[in-house]
Design a protein that fits this description.
This protein is of the alpha/beta class and about 210 residues long. Helices cover about 55% and strands about 10% of the residues. It has ten helices and four strands, in the order H-H-E-H-E-H-E-H-E-H-H-H-H-H. A four-stranded parallel sheet has the order 1-2-3-4, with helices on both faces. The longest helix is centred in the last third of the chain and has 14 residues.
Length: about 210
């Protein structure tokens, strides 16, 4: 409850309209049906067992309200839970550690990225997955710089943000992103988000 109230305060201080606060999956689904928000911020460990109810709730949200973004929060690093959901519904799904949400700008940026249809993965998870990357996969064909760009895309960074982090021009980042799409054979299509598909390919290559 204290964590929930803290997140609500952070969001409101950043100008976000918080339309509901709930404590379990039943109340969450009822609130979504009644209020139709842009995003839901969901703890992975929810009542009654405090294990993986949040993952179950996220799956229900993606099934019944695919237009609503879902930002999962966890106290601990649990990439397997995130991967379970991302494999099935990568668009508009994010996963952050709770210590990350004390920074209002980071939290709000993640919500904006989700409403744009993208995927947001905590940088700690991205770093760990990079260390476990297999060699026999499409991502292995990317250059070191392209893998660096893809890791930042996985964190939910825009091209402008990536350019700032890497001290290059935005046009350079755009070129790297296009090369990533080409090497991963992700064609442009009206009904797909290529950045999300690239992130999913990255995550699959490291698990």
């Amino acid at each position: 409850m204290l964590m929930r109230e803290g997140i609500v305060r952070v969001l409101r201080d950043e100008g976000v309209d918080v339309v509901a606060e709930v404590g379990d999956q039943t109340d969450l689904m009822s609130a979504l049906a009644a209020l139709d928000p842009d995003c839901a911020v969901v703890d992975i460990r929810m009542p009654p067992t405090h294990t993986d109810e949040g993952i179950a709730a996220a799956r229900r949200i993606r099934e019944h309200h695919p237009e609503i973004g879902v930002l999962l929060l966890s106290q601990y690093l649990e990439p397997a839970y995130a991967m379970q959901l991302l494999e099935d519904h990568p668009e508009r799904v994010g996963y952050l550690l709770k210590d990350r949400v004390s920074d209002g700008a980071v939290l709000v940026d993640a919500l904006h990225r989700l409403t744009d249809g993208e995927t947001v993965i905590d940088p700690t998870i991205v770093s760990r997955l990079l260390g476990r990357r297999r060699e026999s996969d499409p991502v292995a064909g990317l250059s070191a710089r392209e893998r660096e760009v893809l890791a930042l895309v996985a964190e939910g960074c825009s091209n402008a943000a990536i350019a700032e982090r890497l001290f290059v021009t935005e046009r350079t980042v755009e070129w790297h992103v296009q090369q990533i799409f080409r090497k991963l054979r992700i064609a442009e299509a009206p009904d797909t988000n290529r950045r999300v598909l690239a992130v999913l390919a990255f995550l699959r290559s490291t698990t």
